[in-house]
Request: fold
Amino acid sequence: MRPILTAEIIAVGSELLTPTRIDTNSLAITARLEEHGIRVRAKAVVGDSRDDLGAVFSSALVRSDLVVLSGGLGPTDDDITRDVVADTLKRPLREDPALVERLRARFARRGLQMPEINRRQAMVPDGAEVIPNPNGTAPGLWLEQDGRIVVLLPGPPRELGPMMEALMRERLAPRSGEARLLTRIVRVAGQTESHAEEIARPFFEGWTSGPRPIAVTTLASPGSIDFHLTLRSERPADGMARLNEAVRALVQAFGEDAYTDDERPMEHVVGSLLAERGYTVAAAESCTGGLLTSRLTDVPGSSAYVQLAVIAYSNQAKIDLLSVPGDLIAAHGAVSEPVAQAMATGVRTRAGTTLGIGITGIAGPGGGTLEKPVGTVAIAVEGPWGSHVRTRLLIGSREHIKFWATQVALDDVRRLVLRERQQAR
Amino acid sequence: MRPILTAEIIAVGSELLTPTRIDTNSLAITARLEEHGIRVRAKAVVGDSRDDLGAVFSSALVRSDLVVLSGGLGPTDDDITRDVVADTLKRPLREDPALVERLRARFARRGLQMPEINRRQAMVPDGAEVIPNPNGTAPGLWLEQDGRIVVLLPGPPRELGPMMEALMRERLAPRSGEARLLTRIVRVAGQTESHAEEIARPFFEGWTSGPRPIAVTTLASPGSIDFHLTLRSERPADGMARLNEAVRALVQAFGEDAYTDDERPMEHVVGSLLAERGYTVAAAESCTGGLLTSRLTDVPGSSAYVQLAVIAYSNQAKIDLLSVPGDLIAAHGAVSEPVAQAMATGVRTRAGTTLGIGITGIAGPGGGTLEKPVGTVAIAVEGPWGSHVRTRLLIGSREHIKFWATQVALDDVRRLVLRERQQAR
Reply:
């Protein structure tokens, strides 16, 4: 039996061709396949059209060792995947009596009688094997023909996910090649994309050449540049050693700017730093409207260090709850470094925490001035060993600016804590 | 010239075949095409392989009136789209001197000399027309052959978006058919998916039958069931009348549960209600960690009504800042209706707002007990005309529970304000 090296993924369903829906199943499927070195050559989304699915499926079958189809296994007329695959492979559909019984029993457990229409879900192409679906009525199917493997999975992610995992473990992994696709991610803050690329580029030539090339893709998001390093290797231990060496070099080149090499988002990195040291934190947010604290509290266990946040949208709230002096606001404006600093001090004092964060800015689209345009954000972080305040001009939509500002604030907390640690040594 | 009725979208780039990246350009392209009744038959993602792209492109060309390719127009060896399209259509590539000059000028404006490698971006297949790219170096291309149209657009969304809009307006709209794809969305809160389907289903038969069928897709997310109604019509005014009638029927069937029929998310609906009436709001959040207020402040202009929020993760903060009696917490536990109510009262009193919201719960994964499992959330909303408090048991991940709880709280605010309005009549 030849190993499975390449795959193609086809999502079936007209709803996936609208502007509001996206096929995310292919990401979960790709993740599983890549772990075993099976390369996804292409993917497609096809509507509920027999002709279109037939054409796309046939051409995938020519190119790839494995074709995974998701969706279109329901009981209605729109559900065409079973039929088209059976037609294309010239395998007649037959009702599987055991499957009918299983479906009936599933309905019976919920006190229901199986609708006749659901019998269609028990139709199986000749020679196909049934893949059990613990979370739904549509079973999966496994077919082999001319050295190719075809897998049919139901569309709902909570049904497909566990089935794909079982499939990988029990059937696909044993038949994949020796190769593994190894991945590591380095995330960098405080750099523009082009500047970060400039720092990283000198490494690329060494990595991409030679017998075990490392592929690098760069992903930029507000406040983070992520380098994804992947290496295809038949000897995973050697491959991982090479990859780790590359990660080490990159992390060293970026120094403090490299905030993680283990895939964690910024709020998890900051959370771990705080938890390790037994530090607590309080935040005073204005333009970010609670998003900073929401991100901090996305981390399980964050109640150990997040004590309090005050979202003071109005000046009066800044004065009353955060003890920001009214004349400070009058002198510098609500969006200013002195006010951000006073907010950080105020919330830290009130909560009695190790760290205090203050953010004030203009998220837009209204409220900007010539002097302080939309996107102006002042961020202060205060700890027992000192404080840090700065103003950034961020660009984008309101939501974009909000997110970016929280990213900068979290990064400032991270740096302040790291530097304190260095000083303490 | 025959009208453009069907289209196919191909995204090019190996990075789009990894588990961390998704092709979102196709959504923007689909939205533009649908507005002019051009139906997307299928879409595909192909890596940087000449063979694979050639095969996928050729078969799309057979099926569809229009093929839109995105990505792979950069200056490097990996950028294969120009070459493959030229090969497939048998049109030799020639350097366009005007384009070389435009590229040089673009670099010169930034004080840079054009790298020689960028000349590749000036290579144009015989007979192709150049689509200007105001936001980048890669121009788009427009080709016609055998009654089919092929469009090449660069991959970065901020370059592709404006180009696609201009293309639609100037070239595609005039050649699309009479048909328009009309869409309306009704969003429902406070219902399970199956219960909402039960209420909506009796309408479906009348809608999907007849000469102008309305297609319905249902999209469930935490705290919202969305019905997307679409109708393809050659007489948009008649079509829209039919669609509006269907929306009216659905909204009537759901009554107060139908929170919007104009695509706005819940926080915008609530924001408009508050702004219209001149109401102000303050929130006391615990388990949602600021997410409720962050959603409220995602709405432009929300500073008019969002006054204050206190995120009181610790009991001490609940006592100090929200005046929650310590013995109330001792008697009922921090996650309880009396404490949620006291939080709402406390923050409303402190901020002097029309409305106060209190949320306390267990977002997990830790912290659950037999009596109060993970997902238990108590939500209180208080206004001058009364208050409302209830406990919900939500399921899912920590982030899922956080979001769902904010959705329930926003919905409770909406209902309380609506009912007050009814009472006031």
Remarks:
- The first strand of chain A starts at residue 6 and ends at 12.
